[in-house]
Design goal:
Blueprint lengths: L1 H22 L9 E10 L2 E4 L8 E5 L4 E6 L2 E10 L2 E6 L2 E8 L2 E4 L8 E6 L66 E13 L7 E11 L4 E8 L5 E10 L5 E5 L6 E2 L2 E2 L10 E2 L5 E9 L2 E11 L5
Antiparallel strand pairs: 1-2, 1-3, 1-9, 3-4, 4-5, 5-6, 6-7, 7-8, 8-9, 10-11, 10-19, 11-12, 12-13, 13-14, 13-15, 14-17, 15-16, 18-19
């Protein structure tokens, strides 16, 4: 009798194990996996995503609506939903929506900046980045050719028999030396925009400000500087700092001391100097900065192009 009960118990255990095994495995979502940040589209220009997020911007989706977001090597847990191709992603205090189609995610109106972030699923085919056209350099501007002075017969000493002069069928082309290309050197002017988003507290600056910038030399100290101006009269200095230029002219290094550099009404700290090093990316200068000043916070994006090239 005891043997029969043991056999029956074994059958029940095996039956329950089979049931739990067949019903406990969830079907994996086809969208699960790592989605790599590819590019940022802003004002019709497309730039590598590293231009705005040097440490990268990646999304990992798990089955069941869970996931994670990694921005500049800092990760946060996330929740995602997808309905009829409309994709929503939430993490921390952020919520961004967009479209998911095939191996591509487009997050729209990224953090209120008017830009879109584009991602592709890891392991799938990724198209080549469509780079924005490089800002035209000074060398691409046609230089008017000065008229060549031609001696008239009256200004030429004429012998008894005038020598035969060979006349070219077409006017001779005069070579004009081309000016140097645009560089991050003293004496250069720039123009563009400052965008602000995610504003909190007493931050009162507008969403978008048109600005001009100048790289010059302080005559009192003989030190090069970089400044950005707002206002029609360029009397509002919104960014100011000393810099060190390079021989190549494609980069400069920010030199930040105690309370001698600022952005809006915030003094830039010496340990933040690396964030304000300048470099040319497709002929433009780009910055992304997290502003914090006495309870006021904002994300600031600066985009500058050589003066005269802004459409």
């Amino acid at each position: 009798m005891q043997r029969k009960y043991l056999v029956l118990l074994l059958v029940i255990v095996l039956f329950l194990s089979a049931c739990s095994g067949s019903g406990g495995v969830k079907e994996e979502s086809p969208n699960a996996g790592m989605w790599k940040g590819h590019s940022i589209s802003i004002w019709g220009l497309e730039e590598p995503i590293e231009s705005y997020y040097p440490g990268g911007f990646n999304i990992e989706l798990y089955t069941g609506g869970r996931g994670s977001v990694t921005i500049n090597e800092t990760s946060e847990d996330a929740i995602w939903t997808l309905k009829d191709g409309y994709f929503t992603l939430k993490w921390d205090n952020q919520k961004i929506s967009g479209m998911l189609e095939g191996n591509k995610i487009v997050l729209e109106e990224l953090q209120g900046t008017g830009s879109n972030a584009i991602f592709y699923k890891e392991g799938t085919q990724v198209p080549e980045l469509v780079q924005a056209p490089e800002a035209p350099s000074v060398s691409s501007v046609e230089t008017p050719v000065e008229p060549v002075e031609v001696q008239t017969p009256a200004s030429v000493e004429t012998p008894e028999e005038p020598p035969e002069v060979e006349t070219p069928e077409e006017p001779q082309e005069v070579e004009t030396p081309l000016p140097e290309e645009v560089t991050l050197s003293p004496g250069t002017w720039w123009e563009g925009f400052i965008l602000t988003s995610d504003r909190t507290g007493s931050f009162e600056y507008p969403d978008q400000t048109k600005v001009v910038a100048f790289i010059g030399v302080d005559t009192s100290t003989n030190r090069p500087f970089f400044e950005i101006y707002a206002g029609e009269k360029r009397d509002d200095v919104v960014v100011s700092m000393y810099i060190e230029t390079t021989e190549t002219g494609d980069t400069f290094k920010a030199v930040i001391g105690e309370k001698d550099a600022w952005i809006f009404d915030h003094y830039i700290e010496p340990e933040e100097a690396e964030l304000f090093d300048g470099s040319l990316l497709n002929g433009t200068i780009n910055y992304v900065y997290q502003y914090q000043e006495e309870g006021a916070t904002a994300q600031i994006i600066i985009w500058l192009t050589p003066q005269g090239t802004l459409e």
